[in-house]
Amino acid sequence: MDMPGLDLSRLVLHHGSTPRSDFSRCPDSRFPSYPAPSFRGCDWARAPGLRGWDILGGARGVKDILDELPLAEVQRLIKVVFDRCDAVPSDERDSLSKCIEEFLDLVENADRWASRSLLPEVSHLAAYCSAEKVQHLLRTQPVMCFPNIHHFPRLHTPLLRRIGIGAVEMPKDVRLKILQRSRDAMLQSKEAYEPIYFDQDKEEHLEMSPGVVFGIDLLMVVEKEPSLHDYYEIEAWVDAMLKTAIRGKLPLKSILLIINRGLSALLATASARLVGVARVGFPGPSQRLSFSFGRFHALGEWKAFPKGW
Fold this sequence. Notes:
Layout: H1 8-15, H2 20-23, H3 58-68, H4 71-82, H5 93-110, H6 119-122, H7 131-140, H8 153-165, H9 172-181, H10 183-188, H11 210-224, H12 234-247, H13 252-280, H14 293-299
Helix pairs in contact: 1-4, 3-5, 11-12, 11-13, 12-13
């Protein structure tokens, strides 16, 4: 799109709160290639949290402009238009989600024919979509299209936990990517989690946060599920769970349960690797079976334990 002398970012910033009717009075000759405003779906009303959404022509207008811009300008305009999404009140999130989903649908459908994919540049916006849309994108698009998958826990921790545990079917590379990039977010989130494998009723007087309960559930899945026996980050999960438990001043019984479940999962993955090494006849990546308690001492974590230990 040839717009000599026109800085789209400044235009959007300046007109971000200007009604469409006021903007339409500008002479057409100033914007020879400007997209016609779209009046479908969420474009009937101003989109909450999306700066300049109306004046740029809604989902289709923004997408058409991005198609013609150099990559550096694509990133710049995306930041200007979408950088206020986090500030949208919860009662307006549905409207925001509809607008972004319409935009991502256009990007996803156009990518089949386009020589340049916009999806990696806008994939982080999926964090503001509905859980159904996030699930669809993760299932149908290559995992490389989601370099910012760590943004997803903002609104979708329950979905990511269900994917990690295997309750929601997903390609293995996507599942492992979520477990890798969203570990701390899933462990530290206070959102409720209903365990699938871990029976809390059998463990009397256990005090655990929802994140730690999820972590134990995951360790039990790793122990039982052969497809995860080649997952190399179990020790990192156990370390993170222990840190969370110690900082939360959980009782000794809870921490011992984490250690026992962690050892069982590590032994299962190590045994599977030993079988694989025996079959192919050469050594593979080593798996440590010890927990790095020295790291906790160095960090002063043990000071968090209750008195009387």
